[in-house]
Design brief:
heterotetramer, A: alpha/beta, two-stranded antiparallel ribbon, 14 helices, globular, B: alpha/beta, seven-stranded mixed β-sheet, five-stranded mixed β-sheet, 40% helix, binds thiamine diphosphate, binds magnesium ion
Chain lengths: 329, 323, 329, 323
């Protein structure tokens, strides 16, 4: 298909968003190591091209569901870095008032229906959101991001069936990063995940998830198909988890081992951020321009951390008002 | 006022609320031809966009409700039997009941889930559970227990108009029973118990399907000179603790009747509330008349042995009335 | 593949078993209409070839899981007609002591792990049974019977995945009878169910479920594959539900309609029992022989009903001993 | 006797029972590299046939256990966090808890399901539930609540050797804590409560993870001259009602401490049992110290606000001690 290439402005924008995700998480990594964060963080480092390439195709009113590894989706869909950082620090200025933390960052005003601590928890929520969009006849679509491990949950098949039957405006994006916690996907995944979608007559594409342009192109088609009312699409983006399943993974592994350092190094060479950067340079973008972006993002991250640190801790009593609308718990 | 069947009252509430608000949708397995009766005629009135037969996939039916509600629909999901709540329990317990808090109050979930509970029809263990205690423990979902056609209509309207996930538990054995239902548009507030019968000697707190045998028991007790007060909590979440405590104080003798299995039942919780908040006024042990800790047998005689009836309730009440 | 035809003795045996199921259920139908049965019954009439053709390939030690429509599976796997009848009548002499009824007939001593009231409930149980067989290194295999509607439950996919990964001795038999309660399968099923199994690299065959020989042949291959330790197989048997979803269906339908009488009549012409009967006659079996079988089965059904009627009702107090092994409820 | 960590005691029990009986198998998500610590080393000792990493599919993990047990294995399933019990709830509530009765006693299900519960680690609502009250209500499954390394080892061995489905609930916050564990082979019977501390003024019934703060509270109370008895039910199903009633009679003043949400909690049920069976001996309201009816917030300070601690327990106990 003659899918257009992104313009150089678009490519720059993609780069900047990917870099924002990368730098935010590098900082989270440092703060996790320093013991500054109350809960666990699951980092998206190495997978930035997927959320960025897909969300670049979405409108603010479109909706996404995310996973336990959700910082990238949150930021790619336009979530506020400061509000996210404050949330992960457990502060009342956090996007979820400190009640959700890293695994639950959400901004409904931007269509971010939330990261999710339940593997596979997003499928049905995204399917329901797509159903509502269809019924309200606006042009909103829904996107479900999920991992290769989540594709083994039966609810995946249920959503394939329902969304295909009802021609829902849904895009299913499988981020195949080779692992489910410490288990190689091959050990727990029979056949090709894409074939599962094909069995339900859903248009499917498998792309290099470390190539933001490839993702951007596949997503463009899927999103347009959804907007035209032609039903769901499935995208499998092949990628690799560079960091541990969660930070401080070694504490859990206690010397156990599930992959080779060399493998990680191999994948570092395909770093999606670096790849756009090279592409930009070779397509004539100036070092200065990129430096300026780096600087801008560095400042954003700094501000986010300062904001989080300066904020007050969560208000425990608020929990009693947050269980129900207009009803005390 | 007009006499209507319980199922009919539910059907009316659905029709009226769907006419009132185009955002209300109803889906579930075989809602079109209304396998449970209560969704009859909706398809002809509102069409296939808003009334949807779904595949058999309860885990997705409950989760879809969360997404559809978040995206602007008022969702009514019909789960058929309350045992199937267990099949769709993940999205109920991990999403529906928690998403609002986890998102700092961003998620608004106008969801009503209808499910029929209880025994009496020899449907056996997988179709006879009273699966609401597990919902009550979740914290994040309301639980309505209509005992009469009027309550069924009024509570369902409140559920559908509300902005919180609510389980509307249909008493399976009551579907065909008649009762007076107010005319026109009316709702019944959550968290307000009803004193169905006045009495000074003993208080019978009867949940949902148990109201009828409780009233029969009250009659029997009257014959033996015991005046029983009968109170119906109507919703378990929110729970009208004030009214229940007041009722307990009035007589000092309380029997709680629940068609759920005894352990960690709603009856247990109500008894616990009373021994905490009405202790000084209690004159006798708070008794629970519940289904024993077994699952429902198939044979009619075995089923009868397990489900609380007027005799068991009356016997228990007279024990403590004279204690 | 050159799968052998059943010998005439085998064909006679298949016929006799199918006829037993048919006559038992015709009697249940009458007793349901007469109000003699406490609970609902879901009849298997028109689908007898499937359970019979598959179970003829099994050993007594092999295990099956069944559905809410389970009388046929119970009888085909060698369950006792009297004990089944007494169960459905709610008597203490029933195979489940009157505690389970029609939707739960089971005989573990014959590998019948039970009919099941939860649609899709049998998948994981059969998968687990197959896992145990593999670990105990006996040659037992497990068969899961399920309907087309059940194939939309996510657990179906989960069992496909696990059984394929672990090469479990499992045969999945989908009885596609066109309906899920009052809903035509097409309305709720996207794509071909067999493609779902193919997506997990599971050998698949689609057969005429009203032709007991076709079922017997497909099952033979699947069962042998499982015994050889080569993993699961999937069989889709196309058939049709002649009776209502449950007896007294019209009470529920209240005038509603989900299929045409003519369609039912069309399928009556493909009656699986009548088809074997014709086949037997044309292959030289004598009318007398078949009459003798009819008579034998008529007597069996009578005995079963008399036994059920003569038996005492269930013992309620027993329930307290049946929740746990050696522990009062 | 030797001091061991709670997680280590569980690991020992698994190793000993697997060595003892070749029919014991263990499966779950990431049990090989032991994401929860307790299955560490099993793979090297027993190999990939008996120790299996599974795909993420809780609905099937619980259902498979039923089939594998029925076909001759002793199954240990690791569910990781207790919230995932909800994900696999259908086969638990509709099959595991009911199959034996429904088959007239034919099904024998030697199944042990391990799951970690409770808060304290800022894991947020979907990883912090104390998901056992829903299990207690099912009727057909045992529920073990080990509070110490010794109980963890002894109760797990009993569960694995037993012939009934048992949920073995790991106190997530206790994994690293040390305690004396008897040497050699020993088991702890189900349905036998332990009196962990003698006292005459007030009885604290502490469930699982709550034993530790309860004992701290007892120390605080002692300082103010109140002698608290501390009792640990150890299993909720079966429940040692006799021992709990006796403990209540002894002091007439009872606090029940439970890390579950309050409504329909185990604490509620125990309070209900006491007001029924120990009524005459109660001198003060039976108090519950539980997690409020909210799901667990992420922020550490908010989490602390919800989880019962020594102060709250001591405060509540002294209230009724002087009531
Ligand atoms: C229902 C459920 N089961 C298990 C877990 C524990 N868990 C958290 S992440 C994870 C692996 C997920 O793998 P994948 O979907 O590939 O996402 P990735 O971590 O690779 O991004 C597991 C098993 C969970 N959070 N929820
Ligand atoms: C989990 C669950 N959901 C819903 C039902 C209600 N129900 C009983 S049978 C049935 C249809 C099953 O269709 P299929 O699997 O094709 O079997 P068939 O009845 O056609 O033999 C439904 C929805 C149930 N028993 N269990
Ligand atoms: Mg992965
Ligand atoms: Mg069918």
């Amino acid at each position: 298909m003659a899918t257009p290439e992104p313009s150089s402005e678009q490519l720059l924008a993609l780069y900047e968003r990917m870099l924002l995700i990368r730098r935010m998480e590098e900082r989270l990594r440092a703060d996790a190591a320093a013991g500054n964060l109350p809960g666990a963080v699951h980092l998206y480092i190495g997978q930035e091209a997927i959320a960025t390439g897909v969300c670049a195709r979405l409108r603010e009113t479109d909706m996404i569901t995310s996973t336990h590894r959700g910082h990238g989706h949150f930021l790619a869909k336009g979530g506020d870095p400061q509000a996210m950082m404050a949330e992960i620090w457990g502060k009342r200025t956090g996007i979820c008032k400190g009640m959700g933390g890293s695994m639950h960052v959400a901004d409904f005003s931007k269509g971010i229906l939330g990261a999710n601590g339940i593997v596979g928890g997003g499928f049905a929520i995204a399917t329901g959101a797509a159903l509502a969009s269809k019924l309200t006849h606006d042009e909103r679509i829904a996107v479900a991001f999920f991992g290769d491990g989540a594709a083994n949950q039966g609810v995946f098949m249920e959503s394939l069936n329902v969304s295909s039957l009802w021609k829902l405006p849904l895009v299913l994006v499988c981020e195949h990063n080779q692992f489910s916690e410490f288990t190689p996907s091959a050990d727990i995944t029979s056949g090709e995940i894409a074939d599962r979608a094909r069995a339900f007559k859903i248009p499917t594409s498998v792309v290099d998830g470390n190539d933001v342009v490839a993702v951007w192109q596949a997503a463009g088609e899927a999103v347009e198909r959804a907007r035209r009312g032609e039903g769901p699409s499935f995208i499998e983006a092949k990628t690799y988890r560079i960091q541990g399943h969660l930070e401080a993974e070694d504490l859990f592994l206690q010397g156990g081992k599930y992959r080779e350092k060399a493998e990680i190094e191999e994948w570092r060479k395909r770093d999606p951020v670096e790849r756009v950067r090279q592409r930009l340079l070779s397509s004539g973008a100036s070092e200065e321009k990129l430096k300026a972006i780096d600087a801008r993002i560095g400042a954003t991250v700094e501000r986010a951390v300062e904001f989080a640190q300066a904020s007050e801790v969560a208000d425990p009593e608020l929990a009693f008002d947050l269980m129900f609308v207009g009803q005390k718990a | 006022m007009a006499r209507k069947r319980y199922t009919h009252a539910i059907n009316e509430a659905l029709i009226e609320e769907m006419s009132r608000d185009p955002k209300v949708i109803v889906y579930g397995e075989d809602v079109e031809l209304a396998i449970m009766g209560d969704t009859k005629g909706l398809l002809d009135k509102f069409g296939r966009e808003r009334i949807r037969n779904t595949p058999i996939c309860e885990a997705t039916l409950t989760g879809m409700a969360v997404g559809a509600a978040a995206a602007g629909c008022r969702v009514v999901v019909h789960m058929m039997f309350s045992n199937f709540i267990y099949t769709g329990f993940d999205a109920i317990a991990n999403q529906m009941a928690k998403l609002r808090l986890m998102t700092g109050g961003q998620a608004v979930m106008p969801i009503t889930i209808i499910a029929a509970y209880g025994g009496g029809g020899s449907n056996a263990a997988q179709h006879s559970d009273s699966g609401y205690p597990v919902l009550v423990n979740l914290g994040g979902v309301n639980v309505a227990m209509p005992a009469t056609p009027a309550d069924a209509k009024g509570l369902l309207k409140t559920a559908i108009r509300g902005n919180n996930p609510t389980f509307f538990m249909e008493a399976i054995g009551r579907g065909g029973e008649q009762g007076e239902v107010p005319d026109g548009d009316f709702t019944i507030p959550f968290g307000k118990a009803a004193t169905v019968r006045e009495g000074k000697d003993v208080t019978i707190i009867a949940i949902g399907s148990m109201l009828k045998p409780a009233l029969e028991a009250a009659k029997k007790l009257e014959a033996s000179g015991i005046q029983a007060e009968v109170v119906d909590p109507r919703t378990l979440v929110p729970l009208d603790e004030e009214a229940l405590v007041a009722a307990a104080r009035k007589t000092g003798r309380v029997v709680v009747v629940d068609e759920a299995r005894d352990r960690c039942s709603a009856a247990s919780h109500i008894a616990a509330v009373l021994v905490d908040k009405a202790f000084k006024h209690l004159k006798a042990p708070v008794k629970r008349v519940t289904v024993p800790n077994v699952c429902m047998p198939y044979a009619p005689n075995a089923e009868r042995r397990m489900i609380p009836d007027a005799d068991r309730i009356a016997r228990t009440a007279s024990e403590i009335a004279s204690a």
